[in-house]
Amino acid sequence: MSKLIDQVVIKKHFCGPPNSGNGGYVCGVLARYLEGTVEITLRIPPPLDKVLDIIQTEEGFRMMDGEQLVASAKTATLELEIPAAPNFEQAVAASKNYKGFQHHHFNTCFVCGPTRRAGEGLQLYAGNFGEKNKVATPWIPYDELFDENDLLKEVYYAAALDCPGYFSLIEEELLVLVLGRMTRTIKSKIKKGERLVVMGWKLASEGRKHFCGTAIIGENGELKAYAKSTWIEIKLENVK
After folding, report:
1. Options 3.30.56.10, 3.40.250.10, 3.10.129.10, 3.20.20.70; which CATH number does 3-75 get?
2. If residue 28 lies in a helix (H) or strand (E), which one and from where to where?
3. Which of 52, 113, 146, 210 has the lowest tally of Cβ within 10 angstroms?
């Protein structure tokens, strides 16, 4: 049995590639309908500026564009070993190594696009620190991302846990990868004014599939949220 419970619009402001929604942000939109650890699977490039139906099913929730499945979400479990994180100052230094400053396939991305100005995007510029395939960036979320209780709105946890994972997966060549699946857990609410570190690390690669972990760490070392994600390698001309 399934029923329509809500409708949402992914605004152009929240794009990843120029003509589709940022995968992490869309995961966050759908994950809001479930509690605890949530697994979100993206099926097609999320369309922008269209009314999308949220359908409740026995398994969880679906985001639909008419008859086409955009994404699905269900409760899950997640075991992930979190590596040691750099402190805020070390993350600032790491962000200077951000590969997206030299070249970026989607430079208007809401999460990591270098052409986004302060207050227009998350500006998460994760660069290598220490060993290869580990990246980090500082993050102080801007005021508009918080609710009336000065807590970070839930949708932005998954958004922040998105792109730093991508930059942990690439080395010299900027592979064209799109988010296919994210399993995310929120451990502790983020309050306005907190200084955070967002980090990503590579787990494995299998053909066109690449796996990574990401985490948001508070200034005192508190784990705020973490995720395991699957990225799919595609050709740039196939990106919508």
Report:
1. 3.10.129.10
2. helix 23-31
3. 146
